[in-house]
C-alpha cells in the first residue's frame, strides 16, 4: 500500500512540477503565441465541452481505434506468417525493409488518391503506419521461439493451430507488445496528421482551425488535450500489458533464463 | 517382467552434413527395450545421447536404420511416447499454470473428454506430490518441483514408453535422490517402459534393470549389463551393497575405456 502510494507520488511529481513552473513563468505574460497557462486552462473547460467531445474527440478516437486495430491485426498475422516460414521471410524481408523506411505521413496524399478524404482515408493512414512496428517485432518474436519448448511441443503432438495458439503467439507476446506500444504513439500522431489534411472534424482538425483563426489559447488547449489523451492511452496500454504478460514479468523477476 | 520388445532400435545411424564437413554422431546402434523395462543408457559426455533420444522420439529422422515402437516404425513423435528433458526451465510453458502445462498435451487427444482430462491431470499431479501447485506458474517453483511437473505432464499423457534425457542433471544432489526414487516408484506402480539417458554412472546403476553403455561418438553400444539388484531399492542400503559397487566399477571402467580408445 505504501509502496503503491510512493510510486503514484513519483509518477505525478514531475508533471506537477512542470505545470507549476509553466503556470508561474507564464503568469502575467502578454505574448500572443505563448499565452499564460491560466488563460489556456480557462479556455480548456470552455472549449472542450460535451458538444466538442462528441463532435471532434469521439470521431478521432473512433478512427484511431479502427486504424490501430487494423494495423495491429494485420501486423501480428503477417508477422507470424513471416516469422515462422523461413522461405516467406527470405522473400519478404527486402520489401519490408523498404516499406518501413518510408515515413507514413508522406503516404497521406497517396492514400487520399484512392481512399478519398473521408474516414476511410484516415483509418488507412493510421493502419498503414502502425502495421510496421507490430509486424517487425512479431517477426522477431515468432522467430525466437525457444528450441527446447518447440521440440517439447512437437513431441506431444502440439501442431498446427494449437501450436500457434499455445506456443508461437504467447512466446512472441513480449515482442508483440513492444511493437504495439510503439504503434500506439505512432497511431496518435498519424491520427492528428491525417485530420490536418482534409477533414471536417476531429482533434487535429480542431487544432488547425483554432490556429488559423488566431484562437491561440484554444489551440494550446487542444495540444494539452492531445497530451492528456496520449498519456491516458499509454496508461491503459500498460494495464493491459501487465495483465496479459503477467507470466513474463514474473518470470523475469524470478531471475531465471527462459 | 521381461515381455516382448517395446522399443526396437535397429542399425541406427545419424550423420550431420554442414559446411562441407560430415559429422557422424551415431554410427550403428542396435538394442531393444522390453515392455515394462526400465533401461538406462549411459555414455561419456558428447557421445550423441541427445541425438539418439531425438531419433528414438521421432523428432529427428535417422540417416539410416530404424526405430520400432511396439512393432511400428517411428516416423514422427508417436502418441504412445512421452519425453522428459533435462532443461525443465525451457520445456515447461512459462505462460501457463502448472495445471495447464500438464493438461495441454491431453487436449491434443481428441477422444478424451473434459472430465477424463481433469481426472488424469489431478492424478498425475498427485503422483508427483504437487496436488496443490496446479494454479502456480512453473517459474514460481523450485527446479526439482519444475522437473516433477514435467514428469506429471508425461504421466498424464499415459505413454507406453517414457523417454528421459538426463532429467536430473541440473538439480541438486538431495533433490536428485528424491526424483530418482520417484521415477522408480512411478515405474513400478504404472508399468511403463522407461528409457533413461544419463551421464551419471551411479544413477544408471541405481535406477535401471539393465544398463547400456555407449561408446564415444560416433556411437555404438559398447556393452550391456544386467543390474542384478533387488527391485526394492533404497538410496542408503542399495548404494552400500557390494553388488552395487561391482556394477558401478564395471560401468566406470567401460566409460573410461570408451573415452580413451574412442569407439569399440
Would you write up a description of this structure?
- Chain A: This is ABC transporter permease subunit.
- Chain A: It holds the Pfam family BPD_transp_1.
- Chain A: InterPro entries: MetI-like, MetI-like_sf.
- Chain A: Keywords: Cell membrane, Membrane, Transmembrane, Transmembrane helix, Transport.
- The complex is a heterodimer of chains A (258) and B (264).
- Chain A has one domain: MetI-like fold, CATH 1.10.3720.10.
- Chain A is globular.
- The model of chain A has no long low-confidence stretch (mean pLDDT 90).
- Chain A starts with a helix and ends in a 5-residue tail after the last helix.
- Helices cover 83% and strands 0% of the residues of chain A.
- In chain A, helix 3 packs across helix 8.
- The longest helix of chain A has 38 residues.
- Chain A is mostly helical.
- Chain B has a domain of 71 residues.
- Chain B is 38% helix and 26% strand.
- Chain B has nine helices and ten strands.
- A ten-stranded mixed β-sheet of chain B has the order 5-4-1-2-10-9-3-8-7-6, sandwiched between helices.
- In chain B, strand 1 and strand 2 form a beta hairpin.
- In chain B, helix 3 packs across helix 4 and helix 3 packs parallel to helix 5.
- The longest helix of chain B has 20 residues.
CATH homologous superfamily classification of chain A: MetI-like
Which fold name is given in CATH as the topology of chain A? MetI-like fold
Helix coverage percent of chain B: 25-40%
Distance between the termini of chain A: 31 Å
Q: Main sheet of chain A? A: none
What sequence of helices (H) and strands (E) makes up the elements of chain B? Answer: EEEHEEEHHHHEHEHEEHH
The radius of gyration computed from the alpha-carbon positions of chain B, rounded to a whole number of angstroms, is 18 Å
Total strand count of chain B, please? 10
Structural class label of chain B: alpha/beta
For the largest beta sheet of chain B, what order do the strands appear in spatially?
5-4-1-2-10-9-3-8-7-6
Main location (chain A): membrane
Membrane topology (chain A): Multi-pass membrane protein
Organism (chain A): Streptomyces corynorhini
GO biological process, one term (chain A): transmembrane transport
Amino acid at each position: 500500500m505504501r509502496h503503491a502510494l510512493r510510486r503514484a507520488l513519483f509518477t505525478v511529481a514531475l508533471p506537477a512540477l512542470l505545470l507549476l513552473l509553466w503556470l508561474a513563468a507564464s503568469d502575467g505574460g502578454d505574448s500572443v503565441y505563448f499565452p499564460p497557462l491560466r488563460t489556456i486552462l480557462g479556455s480548456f473547460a470552455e472549449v472542450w465541452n460535451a458538444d466538442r467531445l462528441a463532435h471532434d474527440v469521439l470521431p478521432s478516437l473512433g478512427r484511431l481505434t479502427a486504424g490501430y486495430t487494423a494495423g495491429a491485426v494485420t501486423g501480428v498475422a503477417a508477422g507470424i506468417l513471416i516469422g515462422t516460414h523461413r522461405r516467406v521471410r527470405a522473400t519478404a524481408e527486402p520489401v519490408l525493409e523498404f516499406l518501413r523506411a518510408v515515413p507514413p505521413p508522406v503516404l497521406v496524399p497517396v492514400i487520399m488518391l484512392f481512399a478519398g478524404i473521408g474516414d476511410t482515408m484516415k483509418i488507412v493512414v493510421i493502419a498503414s503506419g502502425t502495421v510496421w512496428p507490430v509486424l517487425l517485432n512479431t517477426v522477431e518474436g515468432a522467430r525466437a521461439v525457444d528450441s527446447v519448448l518447440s521440440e517439447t511441443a512437437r513431441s506431444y503432438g502440439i501442431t498446427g493451430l494449437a501450436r500457434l495458439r499455445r506456443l508461437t503467439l504467447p512466446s512472441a507476446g513480449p515482442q508483440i507488445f513492444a511493437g504495439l506500444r510503439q504503434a500506439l504513439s505512432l497511431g496518435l500522431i498519424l491520427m492528428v496528421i491525417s485530420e490536418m489534411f482534409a477533414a471536417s472534424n476531429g482533434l487535429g482538425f480542431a487544432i488547425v482551425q483554432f490556429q488559423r483563426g488566431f484562437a491561440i489559447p484554444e489551440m494550446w488547449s487542444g495540444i494539452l488535450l492531445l497530451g492528456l489523451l496520449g498519456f491516458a492511452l499509454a496508461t491503459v496500454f500498460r494495464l493491459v500489458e501487465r495483465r496479459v504478460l503477467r507470466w513474463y514479468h514474473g518470470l523475469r523477476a524470478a531471475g531465471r533464463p527462459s | 517382467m521381461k515381455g516382448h520388445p517395446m522399443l526396437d532400435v535397429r542399425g541406427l545411424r545419424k550423420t550431420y552434413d554442414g559446411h562441407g564437413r560430415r559429422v557422424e554422431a551415431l554410427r550403428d546402434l542396435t538394442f531393444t527395450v522390453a515392455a515394462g523395462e526400465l533401461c538406462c543408457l549411459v555414455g561419456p559426455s558428447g557421445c550423441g545421447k541427445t541425438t539418439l533420444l531425438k531419433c528414438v522420439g521421432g523428432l529427428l529422422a535417422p540417416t539410416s536404420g530404424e526405430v520400432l515402437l511396439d512393432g511400428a516404425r517411428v516416423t514422427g513423435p508417436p502418441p504412445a511416447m512421452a519425453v522428459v528433458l533435462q532443461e525443465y526451465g525451457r520445456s515447461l510453458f512459462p505462460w501457463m499454470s502448472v495445471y495447464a502445462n500438464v493438461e495441454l498435451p491431453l487436449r491434443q487427444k481428441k477422444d478424451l473428454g473434459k472430465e477424463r482430462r481433469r481426472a488424469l491431470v489431478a492424478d498425475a499431479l498427485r503422483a508427483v506430490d504437487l496436488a496443490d501447485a496446479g494454479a502456480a506458474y512453473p517459474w514460481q517453483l523450485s527446479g526439482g518441483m519444475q522437473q516433477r511437473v514435467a514428469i506429471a505432464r508425461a504421466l498424464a499423457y499415459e505413454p507406453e514408453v517414457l523417454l528421459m534425457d538426463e532429467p536430473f542433471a541440473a538439480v541438486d544432489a538431495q533433490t536428485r535422490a528424491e526424483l530418482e526414487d520417484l521415477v522408480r516408484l512411478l515405474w513400478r506402480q504404472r508399468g511403463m517402459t522407461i528409457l533413461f539417458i544419463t551421464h551419471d554412472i551411479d544413477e544408471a546403476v541405481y535406477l535401471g534393470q539393465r544398463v547400456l553403455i555407449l561408446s564415444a561418438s560416433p556411437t555404438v553400444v559398447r556393452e550391456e549389463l544386467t543390474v542384478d539388484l533387488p527391485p526394492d531399492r533404497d538410496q542408503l542400503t542399495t548404494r552400500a551393497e557390494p553388488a552395487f559397487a561391482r556394477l558401478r566399477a564395471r560401468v566406470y571402467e567401460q566409460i573410461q575405456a570408451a573415452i580413451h580408445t574412442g569407439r569399440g
